[in-house]
Structure formats: structure tokens, C-alpha cells
Amino acid sequence: MNQDILFISDLHLSLGKPAITRRFLNFLATRARSAQALYILGDLFDAWIGDDDNTPPNPAIRSAIQSVIGQGTPIFLQVGNRDFLLGPHFAAQTGIALLPDLAVIDLLGTPTLLMHGDLLCTDDVAYQRFRSLSRTAEWRQNVLGKPLWLRHLAARGYRLRSVWHKRKKSPDIMDVNPDTVITTMRAHNCLRLIHGHTHRPARHTFTIDQQAAERFVLADWNNHAGEVLCWRTAGWHREVV
Ligand SMILES: [Mn+2]
Fold it and tell me: Which CATH number covers residue 218?
């Protein structure tokens, strides 16, 4: 029996990048089917304006996910900062299991903390303020209550603003805060953390209370390649998709 446990994040699927969508659909049709489980750690979609949005590529992705799960590979998903409006209706349609923003799993015997990663970027105070606001039920209901065409328009405006803000921010602010990493891992009794979001793939080693700790950062997918972090009993490796 194949024991591979796969982790991906930051595909940023959108109508404008069909090559990434094709790569992901192909990955679901082939590699994902031989895995024991697939974890998607946020920003699967470049924008998500509500589970009722059926514009492409959403229907194809929904049915491909449903098919993999039906065939026997469970898929777990955390939302990211771009697709945080993805919700229970999408989960019900696809069979995907939604994970909380901070999820501890038993990864082949080791408690492992999974996060998208944006919560760790505490130096970006303005973003964290927006994040708290946008996760309230009131904000959510206000946005999701708007007609679909208006949400499409707002998403376009939001994307432009986000590009503009990023240009003004220093690269340090956009990365995780090391103290936040340690306090978060300690609070969840984990010496291993896997996250995405920063698009700076790496494995960082450090110590927490004199114990060896590690932090895996997943790669984003682009027009040329995607990357999967693969765990099995013998260890881990990264695979190019
Ligand atoms: Mn992100």
C-alpha cells in the first residue's frame, strides 16, 4: 500500500493561468490517486468570491477533486489569504475536508502543525488588521450577500490594490516573524510546522526549548512547474509536477 502523504499550497488557480489549472487537473488524475492523503495548505485559488461562483475553472476543479476523493484519496484543505471565503458548500459539493487555520495532524507519528502561513507574518500589521476584520461573520455575510457580478468586480479591484501594496512593502515584512513561529509551535506542542504563503520554499531548522524543530515552507506553483512535499515512512522529498 502506498503511504505517500502529499502537501501543496499556493497554486493560485485562476482563469488567467490555464497552464497551472491543467497541471493541477493532471496531478489529480495521476499522482494524487496513488497517495494516502492530500493536504492543500491554502491559496488553491487566486481569488474566491463565494461557493456560488461557477465561472471557469471552478466547475472542472470541483469535479476533479470530487473524483479523486471518490476514488479513495481524502483531500484536506486550509483556506489562504486569497481564498478565505471558500466554505462549507464547496466542501459538501466536493467531499473535501476543511481544516481550521491551525491544524495539528499526526504525520507518520510526529505531531505536525499545518498553517497557510499568513498568520505568521505578524510584522505586516496592516494585513493582520484586515485579516481579523475579514474573518468576522459580519464581514463575511456582508460580502457574500452581494450579487455575484458585484463580487467579481470587487475582487478585480482587490487584486489590483494588493499588487500595489506589495510593491510598497519591504520583503522582510512579507516573511514570517521568527518569534511568532516559535510561540505558535510551542502553543500547539509541535516541533514540526508545514506552511506556504511566502513563496520562499525551504526547510528551516532551529530549536524550541532546547529541542530540535523544523519548518517546511512549500513552493507556489507557476506557469513552468508545481511542487509537492511528499512524506512517507522513509522520509520526505520534494517532487516537481
Ligand atoms: Mn497566501
Answer: 3.60.21.10
